[in-house]
Amino acid sequence: DYQDGTGADSTEHRTAAIDAYSKAIAMNDRAARVWLNLGINFVTRASHPDNRDAEGDLARAASAFEKGRALDSGNVVTFFYSGEVHAELAHRLRDRGGDPAPELTLALTSYRKGLSLAPALPHLHNGVGGVLMDQAALAWDHGESPDALLTEARAAFEKAISVAPDQGYGYNNVGAALTQLASYQSIRGDDIESSAPAAAAATREALARIPNHAALWGNLARIHAIVAAHRLAQGRDPGAAVAAASEAIEKALAGNPNDPEILVYRAEILGLAARWKARGRGGDPRDFDAVSEAFRSGLDQKPKSQEYPMLFARFCFEWASWDATRNKDPEPALSTGTTVVRAVLEARPRWAEAIALRGGLSLVKARSAGEPVERREHAARAARDLRAAVSENANLEHLWGGARKVAEQLAGAR
């Protein structure tokens, strides 16, 4: 545990602990606490980024918790950790294009059973809210409205706050739910001037209780980045939001300079600053090159979710679009963006947002193509992808519907 706290590699000692608990169980398999400790060590080892059998460890953890719970059905800790395991398995399934719904149901059931034993335990309320956020993301993926589930998630986090008002995590989770809502609202073309400030306020409440928490500063930076991107898309001045995001991300980096998610958020913010500068003063290609390097540095640290390379791909789309409108060669940005999206879609083949982005990149190629035949071919590919994306997720119509119409016109032009 000390090694994990300091960022050191605990795999060797975790494995030794697993072996020791396994031997203890071989001598006496009726000790519920030993099963619990075995499961916890499997969970912790599964979280190591270089674990090639993480899902196997999570499955072994789930089995250990189930056996411990059979021996002591009143131990609320097993319900909490079982929820954690099933929630993590759901994340991994979604990230490779599988169906996370059954695992999310198991996670929610486990947390709620725990709450029936310990209704004042904030960890369980936070767990319930986290699963509801994941179910909201699944609804979004299917083209449904996630709003009601996010409202329910906020209510769960507010219960966590009510039973533990001095803890920061409930406030941070309220901020996370509102951030997720603001992101969806922006994509749908809705107003975010209520959800985004509320997300920032909740996250600041968390920081007031845990002031040096790097991940919380990263979350605050992400909120401001969403606002900046929204204002850029509307043709408004994003300067204040970019400045706020930059300030927050520097504090996050001061707390943990090697965190992959924080590094990717930093690259996203640098990209917003470069795009704002390009819009106002013509821009400098070196700024875009620097952003690309910043993204690569963050992604080299292997962030857990496919959401992070998608931020890079989205930047490449904006970069290529900027080059094309200024009669510069967009091919370097297009090539990088296409490579990133291809890798994402290998993991999640039906992810509508990635399919739409691939279509957007093809549309930039079509618009910059010199020969009519080549232009029509790229436009046809763009139109196919954009139709497929909106068919899979109708929430994307506002963001990509106009591009689809342009692609269809170019594909039919003679």
Find the count of extended strands (DSSP E, 2+ residues).
Answer: 0
Strand content: under 5%
SSE order, as H and E?
A: HHHHHHHHHHHHHHHHHHH
Portion of residues within helices: over 70%
What sort of overall outline do the alpha carbons produce when their principal axes are compared?
globular
Mean pLDDT: 94
Tell me what you see in this structure.
- It is a single chain.
- By secondary structure, the chain is mainly α.
- α3 (32-46) packs parallel to α5 (76-95).
- The N and C termini lie far apart (66 Å).
- The model is unreliable at 1-6 (pLDDT under 50).
- The protein is 79% helix and 0% strand.
Summarize the helices and strands and which ones pair or pack.
Blueprint: H1 2-6, H2 11-27, H3 32-46, H4 54-71, H5 76-95, H6 101-117, H7 122-141, H8 147-163, H9 169-188, H10 195-209, H11 214-233, H12 239-255, H13 260-281, H14 285-299, H15 307-325, H16 331-347, H17 352-368, H18 372-392, H19 397-412
Helix pairs in contact: 2-3, 3-4, 3-5, 4-5, 5-6, 5-7, 6-7, 7-8, 7-9, 8-9, 9-10, 9-11, 10-11, 11-12, 11-13, 12-13, 13-14, 13-15, 14-15, 15-16, 15-17, 16-17, 17-18, 17-19, 18-19
Throw out a few tags for this protein.
single chain, 414 residues, mainly alpha, disordered N terminus
Gist of the model:
Helices cover 79% and strands 0% of the residues. The chain has 414 residues and is mostly helical.
